[in-house]
Amino acid sequence: MVYHLVKKDFLLAKRYWFIMLVFAFVLPVFISSRVDFMTGGFFAFFLSTLFIQYLMFNTVSMIEYKFKGSALLCATPYTRRAMVRSKYAFLLAIFVGCYIFYTLTSLFISTKLAMLSLSDVGMSLLILAVIFGTIIPVQYRFGYEKSKYIFMCMIFLFPFVAPRIMISMRTHQIGHQDLIQLPQIAQGLFLGLLSLLILGMSIGLSTRIYANQNL
């Protein structure tokens, strides 16, 4: 059931597939060339994935809002729980796709783009889980129209704020690898499990909110 709903979301955004594929290859290289103070490709991967996920998620939300897709789906055998879970699965699928494209790009342009470590992937997933774990319940609570402007400003202001944070962390010799004194594999697993825990809590909250919404 969730699979078909995720497939539906990708079909709704099919007009933008080519653009997103170009972004997945070009954005990491562009960002990496502008943030030479960073070691590794964490920032390039995270920021490009954030933009792609948000643009895809916002596109699907806009289309469903415009054509009352959620209300129509509620008249089908699909449950609201499945509809909520499909949104998170949709974002996870995009994350995996972005990781694959990033890895392929870094293999072909190794001089411009660094390979990701497990802790880089885990930290990216954790931050994205916090961001979208907040966005989705708020959108279910207040609706697409009311919440879109707030999150649009947050997402597009982030690139201007994040480099300053990264520079400050580098100045004080703080890196996300230093936050957890564990081997790389253990760090990746720990961050991944923490991300899934946050997403699980967000799914539960979104499900409760959406179950009480009058469509």
The share of residues in extended strands comes to under 5%
Whole-angstrom Rg:
18 Å
- Which of globular, elongated, flat, extended, rod-shaped describes the shape? globular
By secondary-structure content and strand pairing, the structural class works out as mainly alpha
Instruction: Give the proportion of residues in helices.
Output: over 70%
Low-confidence stretches: none
Largest sheet, strands/sense/barrel: none
- Overall residue-averaged pLDDT value: 83
What kind of assembly state do the chains in view correspond to?
Answer: single chain
Order of helices and strands: HHHHHHHHH
According to DSSP, the number of beta strands is 0
Number of helices: 9
Distance between the termini: 21 Å
